[in-house]
Amino acid sequence: HVQLVESGGASVQAGGSLKLSCQASGLSDSTYYMAWFRQAPGKEREGIAGVDSDGSISYADSVKGRFTVSRDHAQATLDLEMNSLKPEDTAMYYCALQPGSGASYTLLNPARYVYWGQGTQVTVS
């Protein structure tokens, strides 16, 4: 049974930085892809950064140049370095994982993912 645990959420001032981490456990498949999503109150869940099974990375335009995603495949972790944070980055941030390969252009589509973490809150003021 795959479980995902996020950590690192906090309240920060605009312009600040945070690092989120996601630890996956219970994986039986060595091929998988992972991504970070966020959801603000009243808004749809948005894919912001992900790493495909082949290591290729995608970012949403809203975070490109400010956020950096990295994966440790052996440790099954996915980190998100967030810099130059803005109030509009305020949201619950979720980690997701899908066994398999070839997400390609659908890497940041939440419908692709079966496994989700509980989320970690990021508040920027």
Question: Topology, please?
Answer:
Layout: E1 3-7, E2 11-12, E3 18-25, E4 32-39, E5 46-51, E6 57-59, E7 67-72, E8 77-82, E9 91-99, E10 115-116, E11 120-124
Parallel strand pairs: 2-11
Antiparallel strand pairs: 1-3, 3-8, 4-5, 4-9, 5-6, 7-8, 9-10, 9-11
Explain briefly what this protein structure is.
The protein is 0% helix and 48% strand. It is an all-beta fold. The mean pLDDT is 96.
Give the key terms.
about 120 residues, 11 strands, seven-stranded mixed β-sheet, mainly beta, four-stranded antiparallel β-sheet, globular, about 50% strand
| Order of SSEs | EEEEEEEEEEE
* CA(first)-CA(last) distance: 37 Å
Give the tally of β-strands: 11
- Overall average residue pLDDT: 96
**Largest sheet geometry:** 7 strands, mixed
Identify low-pLDDT runs: none
Structural class, from helix and strand content? Answer: mainly beta
Rough outline: globular
CA radius of gyration is 13 Å
Helix content: under 10%
DSSP strand content: over 45%
Account of the 3D structure:
It is built from no helices and eleven strands. It has about 120 residues and is mostly beta strands. The strands form two sheets. Strands 2, 4, 5, 6, 9, 10 and 11 form a seven-stranded mixed beta sheet that branches. Strands 1-3-8-7 form a four-stranded antiparallel beta sheet, with no helix packed on it. A hairpin with a 5-residue loop joins strand 5 and strand 6. The radius of gyration is 13 Å and the shape is globular.
